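So, who can interpret the following?
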Amino acid sequence: MKRLDWYIIRKFLGTFFFSIVLILSIAVVFDLTEKMDDFFENQVPLHEIIFDYYLPFLPYYMNMFSSLFIFISVIFFTSKLAGNSEIIAMHAAGMSYHRFMVPYAFSATLLFILSVILGGWVIPKSSERMLHFTDVYIEHFSIENARNMQMEVEPGTILYIESFQKRSKIGYRCSLEKFDGKTLMSRITADRIYYDSAYNWHLDNYTYRRFDGMHESLTRGERMDIELPIEPSEMFITAQHAQQMTTPELRAYMARQRERGSGNVKAFEVEYHKRWASPLGAFIMTLLGVTMSSRKVRGGMGKNLGIGIVLTAAYILFSTVSTTFSVNNVMSPFMAAWLPNLVFLAISIPLYIRASR
């Protein structure tokens, strides 16, 4: 890296973080104005507002709109470089267009690493506090009762519970079926099931049927102790919990749910793929921003900024729409997360080839 490279890197990162501070400050003011009544009505302590809501709020929205910040930052300071004829001077000094992109690629790599760390480890833990705060003081969305749950708790073992209460850890009208291939080997039905500890469950008023070919044996009793590799908290995991899991936890949860035959994995798969697709958008937005603003044009940077905002809004809207399509089974989670990047990469490459010439 030479002095000129560090000059571009400082301009890139400085503009990026300045725009983040500016826009997030405005977002906090608007959000505080909107929720001020809720804070006063519920008498929320000041330290909880700061540390449990707004402190997690900042990295969450910074990472969500990082593509917007990167694109606008690149267009802003690159247009200034072009307007001051600095890029012309660089090329006159023998710097090729490909060499000119090196500090941009270096800066995009740093932002990619930052986004992966934030999205995969920092934000999930902070989002847990923010969502808990929202549930307690602003909007109650947690579920206390679950109904008609069916899952494969072990290979060949299917558990069904008609209703389950989160607080008491008690379920009603359940059945536990064990299969050998497609053959039903046994079936336990009970009026009530409740959790003890360490995967230990108890059944009340049970009926135990065992099948051996054409023969059936039946046992009834008041209580049976069984061991099931599932905890009550797993029955209340919704799509919102995907944001609260670190990337390793998310990967392990998806694998476990697939083994159990659960159908609520779609949103978790989209979240997992987005944690890699969104950070890689830093390279695409950087490439697109440089190719659009590296030429000196009449009228200054206003036109470039306007086009940049429209394209970034289209990118964010495209990502949101594709996610909705995936949740509704219109497209796969992989395509939903990566399609916006692929489309904008297809736009960026011809522009880059044209600009380099």
The mean pLDDT is 89. Strands lie at 145-154, 157-165, 170-180, 183-197, 200-212, 215-227.
